[in-house]
User: What shape does this take?
Amino acid sequence: MPQRAFTLAESVDDLKHAMTRLAGRPLLALDLETEGLDPHIHKVVLLTVGDDREQLLVDCRKVSLEPLRPLLEGPVPKVTHNGAFDVAMLRAHDISVENVLDTMLNEQLIENGRGRQSLSLASLSERYLGLELDKSERTGFARTSGGFTPAQIEYARRDVLATYQVLLEQTPRLAQEGLQETARLEAEALPAFADLRYDGVYLDQPGWLALVEEAKLNQDQARAELDEMFKDVVSTDLFGQVTLNYESDVDLKDALGRLCHRRLREVNKAALRGLGHPVGGVLLRYREMSKIVGTYGESFLQAIHPKTGRIHADFRQIGAPTGRVACANPNLQNIPRGSRFRQCFSGPPGRRMVTADYAGCELRILAELSGDEAFVRTFNKGGDLHSIVASEIFGKSVSKSRYPELRSRAKAINFGLAYGMGAGGLAAVTGLQPVEAERLLSRYFRSYPKVRQYLEDSAALALRRGFSRTIGGRKLYLRVEEDQKTRAAQARVAKNMPIQGTNADMLKISMTSVRKRLRREGLQAMIVNCVHDEILVEAPEGDAWDVSEIVREEMVAAGERYIKRVPVVVDVSVGDSWQK
DNA sequence: ATCTGTGGCGCG
DNA sequence: AAAGCGCGCCACAGAT
Assistant: This one.
């Protein structure tokens, strides 16, 4: 239990007095107790800031946080646990916390791939400090009126103390593991993710609803066609209605077996396409509509926040072990592309959307990593990459219109490469015979020998050392096992991680710098979505073109931190909505 | 009633 | 059919 001094500030004078002592500290821990989890509804009840010598507790219902602003917004590093929450909460109090460290993100980096240990502060406290944290006081703060109980005060102090001390333990480990650069990158990006969540994204509600209704009609029509086709081979109810549930794979396989006289092991897209019966196409159409109605339907409209009128999705800064961001509730990273759904992500009146994405990002990273001269040359030439590669390996001039099938084969290899695809996979994608696929792959690698060399070496090294890294040093530990199949799978992960992970690193750096530039230049623009190699920014109508140039510059600069041998290209567009 | 795993599918 | 990395969501199936 902490024996050191603390101050409970119940007046501005208390606060100012305590501030003078804290302001000179090199590192502070920060933690909030709140009424709930939604920064647009719930308020901060208690703010605790301090180190292992002294903590300051601020009763936010009685005292303005204004005197703390210089400290919170200033350069003194504040360590938190899951700081994106605290930073978002404080934005509702009009405070933009800067220079935040995060013990949760640190832990994710340190343990990346080593297993799914809990990331809670209580677990870290036990693991690093041998200290048990009892969380039973936490829920009490929402209902607290009047003063805090001694137990509540003790609880708040203890959390800050634990956070502070966990960071002290993590810091040398990050250094030992060579993870300082990555930890810094993540810490700097944290406010961008807090803002992303807090600001949310606007959705054209009537437009979205219209698309869903249309899909429902199409779904009904497809279902009617299916009923007609199946009516003689499945059971019907009293009214002669087909009772087959098209969502049930088990029932569907049975019914298809009777209708087509073929027993399918799986009923996915490929299987239905290869069915050789008209019912396959109708089922695919039905599925497509079901997907829209189910996944992209009303749930998105329900996600619109009653107060802000926007969708505040849950972005997970380290959502995948490669370092990629993930998003949920709802997932804004899998909106159908080339459809009218993306058009519904527009700006509210008076605002425009800037869409910016890295062109051919993963392949450029592969060029960088492998250093293959011919591969590097293809990027330096400019023009259509897949065509150039196809021309190179097939020895004739290929373009989108001349020999398009050769171009699409080259494209299949290009995309498969970063995943560690083999000849078998290539055969399946292209429809070539395995022998031909084998030949094609070896032609490819004859043109780009160092690409193969790099991929093989990188996987072998990772399996030997037990981890894989991005260019920036992010680490993924591999549980290397004896079994041949899992070893092969691990090798593919090892080939992919430096590529996917470096891409993620670039995107996070660019989000950090885009945010910084927009703020510095006083622009009322904000990042509203990020999708792996793409950033979506909402900007005032009059500033949209300036913003698009800023976004491009910062994304290019972020890319050039890791990609030096080939140009970094960012495609930018300004429009009424999200476009790709 | 509620949880967990799986197949399928949307995105990069 | 599978194939070739990463994610989340839906619906179903089977268990609790």
Observations:
- Residues 249, 266-269, 287-288, 291-292, 295-296, 324, 331, 333-337, 361-362, 500, 503, 531-534 of chain A lie near DNA strand B (CB under 10 Å from a C1').
- The CA atoms of residues 349 and 541 of chain A lie 9 Å apart.
- The two ends of chain A are 55 Å apart (CA to CA).
